[in-house]
Amino acid sequence: xIETSIVGGGFEHFALLDRLKWKxxxxxxxxxxxxxxxxxxxxxxxxxxxxxxxxxxxFVREASTKxxxxxxxxxLKGILWExxxxxxxxxxxxxxxxxxxxxxYISDKPINDIRSLAASIAHFLHVRVEFIFLPRHKYAxxxxxxxxxxxxxxxxxxxxNIPSVTQDMARRQYLFAAPDKLTGACGRLLCCxxxxxxxxxxxxxxxxxxxxxxxxxxxxxxxxxxxxIAGYYVLRYEDGKKEKFEIEGTP
Length: 251
Hints:
Blueprint: E1 2-6, E2 11-16, E3 26-31, E4 38-45, E5 56-62, H1 65-82, E6 88-95, E7 100-107, H2 114-125, E8 128-135, H3 136-143, H4 154-157, H5 167-172, H6 192-203, E9 213-216, E10 219-227, E11 232-237, E12 242-246
Parallel strand pairs: 2-5, 7-8
Antiparallel strand pairs: 1-2, 1-4, 3-4, 3-5, 6-7, 9-10, 10-11, 11-12
């Protein structure tokens, strides 16, 4: 008879029909009357007591640490999804001897009450769960995806310090797109906005502000378009006509 903790379930005793020996603590068994194998951790083996009525099971095979880790990680993802937590699971590690599952999670900010969550999952998986928080931008820097420009992320190639970027920086560069179109692979505003800002601030003194009403030789006009990179701005006069002007000092 074996005493087990069922991964994703409770504790249960089984009368093992096969008198086999195994080296690993995690094994797959087929419980009598069920169609699918169960992953269990064997806690103790003892003789079946006379008259003891418990469910029967057959030994299927030993489970590798990689298999156990994969199953626990999938169950963990399901729990986080059910709780509505918008996090991504990074690296995970299982120490079967010590019974410790280390989980790296990627998010914008740490999970509130992480200890309570870890304790709840530990009760379900029967291992101690240790969470490690990794901000999204650090994860992106480590992985090294391609940016919107088509090149490898600067934070992965050369940039050591991540600059602070705000919506005001985008506005000063005449970028009024939805925030998701100005964000990088990490979900934050593009770092390149911080490096390009000095150029736009320098050009700000050479071009009228967008939507400004200015006096011209042809009367009042509204600035309806500014393109610093292309080197022009567009005015719309009161009669509806538009006129394009080059910005001084641009190539």
